[in-house]
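To whoever is on call:

I kicked off a structure prediction for a single chain this morning and the downstream step that reads the tokens threw a length-mismatch warning. I double-checked the sequence; it's 53 residues and nothing unusual in it as far as I can see. Pasting both halves so you can look.
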Amino acid sequence: MLEELNKKAKNVGLHVADAKKPKLYTIRKVKNGKLVAKNVTGDDAMQIIKKYK
């Protein structure tokens, strides 16, 4: 799941990483490292990535 999210996020300038809590993700901008979303599920992460396109 994480690899798929990262492939799609890379195209829009985002990076997805595992959060401290299991099965949750954190999304940051690649350019400056600013936090976009924290502790989101995989489905929510996909929606955020699509919104940034």
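Update from on-call: the warning came from a stale cache, not from the record. Cleared it. Sanity check on the structure: The CA atoms of residues 19 and 25 lie 5 Å apart.
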